[in-house]
TrEMBL record:
Residues 124-215 form the CAAX prenyl protease 2/Lysostaphin resistance protein A-like domain. It holds the Pfam family Rce1-like. InterPro entries: Rce1/LyrA-like_dom. The chain crosses the membrane at residues 43-65, 86-104, 176-197, 203-224. It comes from the Bacteria. This is CPBP family intramembrane metalloprotease. The keyword Nucleotidyltransferase does not apply. One of its GO terms (molecular function) is metallopeptidase activity. Signal peptide: none annotated.
Length: 232
């Protein structure tokens, strides 16, 4: 109902891109786009998108709670703030720097569309909306793909690494609209994040690291767009 359907829609979008006469790396796709022509209505629409993402994560937590799994079990309590923050910074560095290089390599090889993290105009609320969107994405994805799905697969008797790989494939699937590079890059991210969670049972570092990565991508792109030649 949530990220699973997003994965299916992303596959359809990728197939549509492949059927076009233009190579993948000469096509583009935007992530955060205007939702309304009127400025304030666009802001409201962007905030509703963030609310939907927050609700998706909340549904996952509620379903876990219904079976007796509390926040501390999956690592969403506040008992290890410093360790969680340091872990988040480490994960962001491990994924962010190689991930950027991988994206440009995949794009250069024609395996990926040119991804535009944001096409929002320079409205006064743009940066705030992008930061909230980054946090919403991180919350929904990490709670559902790692905290919820891997936990449920373990309960169903799946082996540790089988559950890890399944969750990583799901993460990659809803990024297929970006191209093959988007799928592989996010699959690798899913393996790293999922492995970290299985070892530490701390979900906050994943949520924080994912937020950092998306904030850098969303806000950084808007600041550099049109000012540097190496951005597609």
């Amino acid at each position: 109902m949530t990220l699973g359907l997003s994965g299916m829609r992303s596959l359809v979008r990728l197939l549509d891109s492949l059927l076009q006469p233009t190579p993948l790396n000469q096509q583009s796709v935007a992530i955060n786009v205007p939702q309304a022509r009127a400025d304030l209505l666009d802001l409201v629409a962007q905030l509703l998108g963030v609310l939907q993402l927050a609700a998706w994560g909340g549904i996952g937590l509620y379903l876990l709670w219904r079976t007796g799994i509390k926040l501390r079990v999956i690592g969403l309590d506040g008992t290890r703030k410093l360790a969680d923050s340091l872990g988040a910074l480490g994960l962001a560095a491990i994924i962010g720097i190689p991930g950027l290089a991988f994206y440009f390599a995949a794009w250069g090889l024609g395996l990926n569309l040119a991804v535009k993290p944001s096409t929002l105009d320079n409205a006064w609320w743009m940066s705030v909306a992008l930061i909230l969107a980054a946090a919403g994405n991180a919350w929904a994805e990490e709670v559902l793909v790692v905290g919820y799905l891997i936990t449920r697969l373990h309960q169903l008797g799946w082996r540790q690494y089988t559950a890890l790989f399944a969750a990583a494939v799901l993460r990659g699937s809803y990024h297929l609209y970006q191209g093959f590079g988007g799928f592989v890059g996010n699959l690798i991210m899913g393996l790293v994040f999922g492995f970290y969670w299985q070892r530490t049972r701390r979900l906050w570092p994943l949520v924080i690291a994912h937020t950092i990565l998306d904030v850098v991508a969303f806000v950084g792109y808007t600041m550099l767009r049109g000012k540097v030649s190496w951005l597609p």
